[in-house]
Amino acid sequence: MDSKTPVENLYSIEPALSSSSRRSNFSAHSKSVGRSSIREVSFSDLGPKPVKYGSRGAESETYNMSQKEINDEDARLVQINDPVKTNERFEFAGNSIRTGKYSVLTFLPRNLFEQFHRVAYIYFLVIAVLNQLPQLAVFGRFASILPLAIVLLVTAVKDAYEDYRRHRADKIENNRLASVLVNHEFQQKKWKDIQVGEIIKIHANETIPCDIVLLSTCDPTGVAYVQTINLDGESNLKTRYAKQETLLKIPEKENVSGLIKCEKPNRNIYGFQANMEVDGKRVSLGPSNIILRGCELKNTTWAIGVAVYAGRETKAMLNNSGAPSKRSRLETHMNLEIIFLSLFLTALCTVVSVCAAVWLRRHRDELDYLPFYRRKDFYEEEEDNYNYYGWGLEIVFTFLMSVIVFQIMIPISLYISMELVRVGQAYFMIRDTQMYDEPSDSRFQCRALNINEDLGQIKYVFSDKTGTLTENKMEFQCASVWGVDYNSGKGSSQDQKDGYFVEVDGKILRPKMVVKTDPELLQFARSGKDTKEGSHVHDFFLALAACNTIVPLIVDTPDPTLKLIDYQGESPDEQALVYAAAAYGYMLIERTSGHIVIDIQGERQRFNVLGLHEFDSDRKRMSVILGLPNKSVKVFVKGADTTMFGVTDRSLNTSIIRATEAHLHSYSSIGLRTLVIGMRELSTSEFEEWHSAFEVASNALMGRARLLRKVATNIESNLRILGASGIEDKLQEGVPEAIESLRTAGIKVWVLTGDKQETAISIGYSSKLLTSKMTQIIVNRNSKESCRKSLEDAIIMSKKLTTMSGNTNDTGRTLGASLTPVALIIDGTSLVYILDCELEEMLFELACNCSVVLCCRVAPLQKAGIVALVKKRTSDMTLAIGDGANDVSMIQMADVGVGISGQEGRQAVMASDFAMGQFRFLVTLLLVHGHWNYQRMGYMILYNFYKNAVFVLVLFWYVLFTCFTLSTAINEWSSVLYSVIYTSVPTIVVGILDKDLNRRTLLKYPQLYGAGHREECYNKRLFWITMIDTVWQSAVIFFIPLLAYGGSTIDASSIGDLWTLAVVILVNLHLAMDVICWNWITHAAIWGSIVATVICVIIIDAIPSLVGYWAIFQIARTGLFWLCLLSIIVAALIPRFVVKVLYQFYTPCDVQIAREAEKFQPRSESAAVEVEMNPILNQPRP
Amino acid sequence: MSSNTPSSSAGGVGSADSSAPRRNSKRPKYSKFTQQELPACKPILTPRWVISAFILVSIVFIPIGVVSLFASQDVVEIIDRYETECVPQDFRNNKVSFIQSDANKTCTRRLTVTKRMKQPIYVYYQLDNFYQNHRRYVKSRSDSQLKDNSSWNDVSSCKPEDDSNGQPIVPCGLIAWSLFNDTYNFSLNNQQLAVNKTEISWKSDRDSKFGNDVFPRNFQNGTLIGGKSLDPTVPLSEQEDLIVWMRTAALPTFRKLYGKIERDLQPNEVIHVTLENNYNTYSFNGKKKLVLSTTSWLGGKNDFLGIAYLTVGGLCFFLALSFTVVYLVKPRRLGDPSYLSWNRNPGGQ
Fold it and tell me: Where does the chain cross the membrane (chain B) (predicted)?
């Protein structure tokens, strides 16, 4: 990033306000250095010098990489302002983008190719192809490919529509305009025409058309602010820098030229390596010099840059990939059942072909003359065999033909039905008003469309804390200044209503957020720094206002006299602190590269920022070195208590330190996040020493981050503790109730947080995760052996507690009372030793005994590790919910990942399967939608197996009466339409709309969620029962007409029509019998498809060229037909009905009882439920 | 089956109106449909419903069963199996050679009427073990040729009886080729008993499936004669035996209508049947029967359906009774929360 600024008259300090021209400070001698996470500073006699900012997150490893030369072959060479020469080999993409997958030409082949990735489709394709062989032609050409064609068509239409929308979006995007330098003049050009190497000018609030390297900005120091919300969803402003060497060039006037050598396009949005040759100098470029496509320029009037990556090679486009696809557990189970079905299919086919073999062998002498076989064609010259290929081959053909005839045993329609049902379920989830988050105006989002039903079987919920359980809206609550605790909860004076404001030129400037203040502290703050307390308070708030990286933004309001200050920054804690400082009269007004302006009690003061050591996770603190108006230099430090007390001057004010420590303890025990603020005044020699060290460190080529950290550590020592702040991370609304519900539902909630133990425990209490009845087991060790030991102890203890309750269980009466729930609290350091080694097993055993697990101080990867720990050892479903980038790994690891679209950006949402606005929606999502979806999908799969198997079995029985020759009485069109038209719609409708229980009941009795845990809706037993029922039903369908019409004049087409209608009506009535919730759509679907079937059968039988012409009319005229139909339906359904009634009456499942209660319990009781549930459901949000 | 329970709008209503002021809000629009709260009926199988359903079924089924049985009993059927009897004693060991020989195949049978038979009396022939539903067989026909004179040479699907001597056969295919060719002549008291052989086929077939301008051509001209020859001067739409035959039977045992006797027959009347035993069922051990049968509203003589109805009705009655007993002995209050699993064994969740 960083070019060096010249250092002239280095160490003299001038009052900040005297500077007039900053530009004159620059000269051109710069050397390139790598990225670092430090702001460097230099200053001169003329005033404050610009401060350079590094990008956050740069680590020493990547730093070292940036030192490597980019190999020529791995590099892309960009001639600045010379797109033709840049791209003379036409190897770089233009800036037009195409997110659409297909073009008109490629749609068909590509879409088909993608669809055939499913094994099931291949199966049906193979069968359709087999059917095309003349020897095996069971169905007509067209009829055989129709089902597959319909399935492919439906999917293709869906894909095409989605793609069309993408194309349309692309078109809009490609036709946006940007100013591009053409012939020394900026002209409007469409985005798609922008080429690599061109110079582009971007104005405020414009979107960046491609990845550009900054050349210059309106800011004399080359700073540009960008918002990356489209890229990573973070709404705060990020700073980017133009290089000194190019800063002064004005492309309109002079010929800007140069060469940028950068890496090949890649998808790392946080990394960029390049160097630039301008005017014969080599400058290195880092991620802070590039602005990526999709970002917006903010707070900067204009910026000029050169395009380096365009179109599909931009980092934004390279990152444009969907959520990873997961497969639902139900579907995995279903695949096992499909294997059973295929074995069954094979068995049927084997039976048929063996029988055929025996028959052929027995009649081998007669085949030539049998009137219905006639092997020989006597009219040919040499009496050839006609359509007969020898005994062996005939058997093979019979086998293959039976596969073709019985193909729908494997339900092709199930796949497409499941897809449609999931879309429908997602539609309802998205539109649920109870999962709409008002403040963020966000709906529920279904990002993964294939795991809806998994939501009904979640056993473990892993939750992040900050931003998930809590709002991540930090609120300054109390402060301890100089050993005195000011707790603003005590009183609230009237004048706080509007908060603090200042008036400038008749305009009122007010912070955007109002913070409640403590009157006593406010008094001290107003009293000025004359008193002793006053001066401490002054330093404290000065530290709060200055020691941060917040950028103040002035926002206009409709009222012209009122302006709001919005503090933009990357850390919500810092925002809270700055707002608090503003409320106490220390309002941060302006932050530029070299100075900050703070309005202190109505008086504007300017401070030179001489240096800034950014926060890093090792030091856990940050510091800023300020040149005060009175020419003294102070270093202000703020950081976590663990590291701050280590660097304080213990000899000073021991009592104050102790008091502060006590306050910190009490703050964190009520769940506040604490920060300690310290300060030290620097003498001139100290400052000079630091400055030279800082310069050296910033200029270092190798290990710069490490050196800078060392410099920071040196200066951050012997601090005087000013005080501490307590920031409340407010619990989201409804979280305790939600956790309660989930726990009652039998879901284990584990909280994984980066917070410290006390904070985590206190949040645990306030969210009702922990209760006073629980025994807490705390594991925080820092060696493997001690971890092992404490785990062993903990297991023994938890066992004791659980077996104790077990004993009382046996003796009887006093059941629930003696059950001691155990809570496990474990910290990240212990997890380091436990995860990925043999201790994992012990931890899992322990965790299983505990009803609550709370992990604190865990790193992102450890979160994933914990999820994996559970996932590996149980077959239970896991769900991870989180909102931040640190939760991404956990979200992707869990079976179901839920993202909270909250404050911390959108990475979590991007990685998630479902996204929502609030934690409490999880209750609705799991207990209501999850339960419904699971029940619906489970039933739908079973039903689809059943309905196809019934049909296949009817065909099979008939084959036994046709010499095993696979002829069917049911005509081929009905066979084909069976799963496409006759029976498909009702199952989809029921799969989307059926409700076993009301939303209210499900929320009232969270235990009902256990149905999913116990796999009540889809399991092996149900599958086999259904299959036995299937055999019975198919036998009834087949044999009643067979016996009733036995030895009569009945012809094949007529009895075929009877069978067709019987099967269709039966399977639809079977469904009707199992539907729980009948609304008009269900009625329409079920009765409608019976009517549709009748119409189809009539149409088919009205075609004279088909064999079955008029058969339905002939047979429907007879009473026997109707009596057969009636007896089939009743006889076929009786066993199922009886079993169902007995089961429901004598071993009712919870769902059944609740359903009855829903219907028979007096209304008043359910009204009470409504009241009770209201706080969770729709409490009006503040 | 149950009362309509429009689910009350539990949560949606309360929050529906609060969003009004916000423009372009993404708030989902509230409707009963999107909140899945459409008015719905949720039937529950209460004992009363179950028992009533069973009783209803038995009330419907038992009378139907009785009526069906009676109908079936009313039907008078005379069945005469003749395929063995009509082969001279010498040929009984080698029936196939007899049937393929040119010997006289006339045969006389005596049928005694057991009960009064009301007209019309249907004359059927019944074949056994003849797989008219065999895949090779059912495929071997050309519907377009039968229908339309212009496509008389459309015989591609008719193998192996597609053409003979280089000329297409009309009607082609195995089915037509194997047309049944036994003939029956009935006489009662030495008087010819007229058999009406018109309108024995479906009218729809005569009108739409078999063309009145399609004449048999080159039929049964090959080396192997399968069955009956057709009069080349009569159009196919009037060849009713063929039309009946071409409606291939569903099962290997089947009857085909031969004709109708349009007069009543009294008990103990003796009918003499002179039949030409031409059709070769011997090569596949098929039986041939001549059937004279009256008909009822239910069709022919078949007790199965009546028995089935009585069985199902009786079973349902039995089920209704036993459920009643069971419910009385061991009742359960529906919807009683104390049956919920977590209430039965507290703390056991």
Answer: 49-71, 307-329
